[in-house]
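Dear Dr. V.,

Thank you for agreeing to look over these. As mentioned in my earlier message, I'm a first-year student in the group and I'm still getting used to reading structure tokens, so any feedback on how I've presented them would be very welcome. I ran two proteins. I've put each sequence directly above its structure. The first is here:
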Amino acid sequence: MATLRNQKRSQEEEMIAKRDLSQEERDEYHLQHVFANDELLDKIKSGPFFLQEKAIAQLVIERIEEYDTQLYDLLSYCIMPNHVHLLIDTQIQLADDGSIPGDYVQLQDIMRLIKGGTATAANRLLNRSGPFWESESYDHWVRNEDSLFRIIAYIMENPCKANFVKRWQDWPYSYAKGYM
């Protein structure tokens, strides 16, 4: 399944690159595909829904919050039964002059820290072994304030769109840093 997704992503990226699109238009196109994939995740009725267990969701939240103010500024998250939305800003790692220090932790390494620690602990709680997370993550660059607010709203409204709650405020596994 991951290989198929990678092939599809490569084809989409090639198609976008061939068009004469601005960076903003390419970002919007990419974001629409992320949203479409997310809608599919919300409609899945079978498969692992480990994150719907309170202890597992709380474990993930604690791990996400552990690195807040150290590796990133945590802007928003939402733990869904079978996936997680996470919006972070890694600029807090930059030096005062805006340069990238030698100990800067890249996004893929941040994701490895979050996923690795939670996978081990979650598998222990679930009395299971094997992969807990998909190996890949979908990421998107936030380029302006409008995009930032739209993404935060999307993250927070996800439980409503999946018909888990009527109001986003009622979902216990979400957070938005002063934006909503």
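The second protein is here, in the same arrangement:
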Amino acid sequence: MRDFYYQNSYDIVAYTYKADLICPACILDALPDAWEVDKVEASDIETALHIIAEAQDVDYDNETTYDSGEFPKVVFRDQVEDGDVCGECFGKFEDSAYRTKPQPRVRGRHI
């Protein structure tokens, strides 16, 4: 695994949603309608978020058309500080760029 300091500045390491930073492993659990994505084969978090956004009539590809209180917006590596943590699991963002596959879920929580 690459060292945290050598990740690309454009790697997605978090999402901002409802005034909080949330890691990719937790973002689907933070969304109220995320269970709809379980009905499809989403290959990664971004695909899952596109599916949910489309169902909610959110233009996910144009972040200027919606507020982060309504739907998550991406946060790139160069936008977080080294001490920032996920608002859901309180994990650091060091490895979150590599956790972009949907996590196994039990009762709405990733395991």
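From my reading of the second output: Strands lie at 12-17, 20-22, 73-76, 105-106, 109-110. The longest helix spans residues 45-55. Does that match how you would interpret it?

Kind regards,
E.
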